[in-house]
């Protein structure tokens, strides 16, 4: 009798196949969303920075529009954003269920968040360096590729690390509305069917993923920071 | 090499318009080291930044190496800028690149092949005396070394003109001198025209051939460095000249002396050119029946010879002193009797 209880408490009915599939789904959602977030975030962040006053592409209207877009999508709570985006998701993915269907919401929610960090990173660049590049006859494209991005790279990487961790927790929320993954497993199999050990195991796996991300991010940042 | 005509820059601020550069006409010859000196706010920084259009003029014309900088298209301006090197007070190196990569940067911009880049970078590293540091990052270098990288970078595309924006103002005196020596060396070796702005007369004295003194957006005085040192006309210029020629606290020390009883005649002797080598004081004492004691003195080297001033007190018969003074004047040493005359 005791044995059974202990077994129930520590191993319970954890179905490792399901747990593995959910982990893969979470990783899939996080990694794909992260790639697109990185791309869109850099582009948006660059635009935000470059269209600002006294910058290379100074443009009040464009700066206002991009700033407004970033602020709005960064402010909507993620769980509401998913629901709001259901029609959009359905039109481009074909369904609003499953890991792939979570991607549009994840990217649209995380890219503006990262864009702000990109903008801050670019602002940290010494203006003198940009001026020196202009004095050497660099084009705006060369300044972006050879100065802005390389000089802000450590901040861009530590920013994407923070964003990646936020994305992992977004995938768990996306799980609640049927995206799959560890969040979904923890909520349906763990909470709704009263299997706390499943919830606990899913939590531990998410923690491991987050710590791994942070570790990798810190490592890369330290390696590329020559200041 | 450089001609400015009716050049003006007006900044519009909340408190009204500021004429940072006010109708300046200036010609700088090929191969000379031209200095612009002024206090901060005099407009010298705006002036030098208009030479490569980092600052667009409000009106007027800027001709550099035969190109009308003020009227070039964006593309042509970029080409023109590749022929104008610039170094900065805070070096403005890319910290993410090594020394060699920083020096290669303008070559990359110009589209020079990787092979030629490497060859040129090696030459430049040698030229500025950074052998063996090509793989270091700027953060591993001292200020003087960083400025050497800045100079190498500015020279990479064989410019015709080198602009120095307070290039030594962030360096200690010893490092300043070594960077100035390097600039003189480059000027001589490459025949490069150098324009520099500074607030230190020391820099002008040490390396410039000609100098312009700026105040409130205008050039108040300009000419050969030695002439300016010899006969500064404007109050502003005199102030700058004093920075170099008079030892600090001179005035205070002299006033203190003049209060003393029986000080006799106090003379300021100003040496210009090669005269500083001769034993003038010994000559005077041998020829005339006077006692001379040296109160203060400072001799500096300029690009054209020595320059300095010596404060002495002379005791003796009034007539003899007059004769001695006349004798000194004959030796092309300027004498100003500041007491007892």
From TrEMBL, chain B:
The keyword Transferase does not apply. GO terms for cellular component: plasma membrane. Keywords: Amino-acid transport, ATP-binding, Cell membrane, Membrane, Nucleotide-binding, Translocase, Transport. Residues 2-241 form the ABC transporter domain. SUPFAM superfamilies: ACT-like (SSF55021), P-loop containing nucleoside triphosphate hydrolases (SSF52540). The keyword Hydrolase does not apply. One of its GO terms (molecular function) is ATP binding. Pfam families: ABC_tran, NIL. It comes from the Bacteria. One of its GO terms (biological process) is amino acid transport. Belongs to the ABC transporter superfamily. This is Methionine ABC transporter ATP-binding protein.
């Amino acid at each position: 009798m005791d044995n059974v209880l202990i077994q129930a408490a520590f191993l319970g009915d954890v179905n490792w196949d399901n747990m593995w599939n959910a982990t893969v789904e979470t990783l899939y959602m996080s990694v794909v969303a992260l790639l697109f977030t990185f791309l869109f975030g850099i582009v948006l962040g660059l635009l935000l920075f470059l269209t600002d006053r006294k910058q290379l592409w100074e443009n009040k209207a464009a700066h206002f529009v991009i700033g407004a877009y970033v602020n709005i999508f960064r402010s909507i709570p993620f769980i509401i954003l998913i629901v709001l985006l259901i029609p959009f998701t359905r039109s481009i993915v074909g369904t609003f269920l499953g890991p792939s269907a979570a991607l549009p919401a994840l990217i649209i929610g995380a890219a503006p968040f990262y864009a702000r960090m990109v903008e801050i990173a670019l602002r940290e660049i010494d203006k003198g360096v940009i001026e020196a590049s202009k004095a050497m006859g660099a084009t705006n494209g060369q300044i972006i590729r050879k100065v802005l991005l390389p000089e802000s790279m450590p901040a861009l990487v530590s920013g994407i690390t923070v964003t990646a961790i936020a994305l992992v927790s977004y995938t768990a929320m996306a799980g609640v509305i049927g995206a799959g993954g560890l969040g979904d497993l923890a909520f349906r199999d763990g909470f709704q069917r009263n299997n706390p050990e499943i919830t606990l195991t899913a939590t531990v796996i998410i923690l491991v993923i987050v710590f791994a991300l942070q570790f990798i991010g810190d490592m890369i940042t330290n390696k590329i920071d020559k200041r | 090499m450089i001609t400015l005509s009716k050049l003006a820059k007006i900044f519009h601020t909340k408190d009204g318009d500021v004429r940072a550069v006010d109708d300046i006409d200036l010609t700088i010859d090929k191969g000379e080291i031209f200095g612009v000196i002024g206090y901060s706010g005099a407009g010298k920084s705006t002036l030098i930044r208009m030479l490569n259009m980092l600052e667009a003029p409000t009106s007027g014309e800027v001709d550099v190496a035969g190109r009308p900088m003020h009227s070039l298209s964006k593309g042509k301006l970029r080409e023109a800028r590749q022929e104008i090197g610039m170094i900065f007070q805070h070096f403005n190196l890319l910290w993410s690149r090594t020394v060699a990569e920083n020096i290669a940067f303008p070559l990359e911009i110009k589209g020079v092949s990787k092979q030629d880049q490497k060859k040129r970078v090696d030459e430049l590293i040698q030229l500025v005396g950074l052998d063996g540091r090509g793989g270091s990052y700027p953060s591993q270098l001292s200020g003087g070394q960083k400025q050497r990288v800045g100079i190498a970078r500015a020279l990479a595309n064989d410019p015709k003109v080198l602009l120095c924006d307070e290039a030594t103002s962030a360096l200690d005196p010893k490092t300043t001198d070594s960077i100035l020596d390097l600039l003189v060396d480059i000027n001589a070796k490459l025949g490069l025209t150098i324009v520099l702005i500074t607030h230190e007369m020391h820099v002008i004295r040490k390396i410039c051939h000609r100098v312009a003194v700026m105040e409130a957006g205008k050039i108040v005085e300009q000419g050969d460095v030695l002439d300016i040192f010899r006969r500064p006309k404007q109050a502003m210029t005199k102030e700058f000249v004093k920075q170099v020629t008079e030892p600090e606290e001179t005035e205070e020390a002299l006033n203190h002396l003049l209060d003393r009883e029986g000080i006799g005649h106090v003379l300021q002797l100003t040496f210009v050119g090669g005269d500083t080598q001769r034993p003038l004081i010994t000559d005077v004492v041998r020829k005339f029946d006077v006692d001379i004691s040296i109160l203060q003195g400072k001799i500096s080297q300029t690009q054209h010879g020595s320059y300095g001033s010596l404060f002495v007190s002379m005791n003796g018969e009034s007539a003899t002193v007059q004769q001695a003074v006349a004798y000194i004047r004959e030796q092309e040493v300027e004498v100003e009797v500041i007491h007892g005359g």
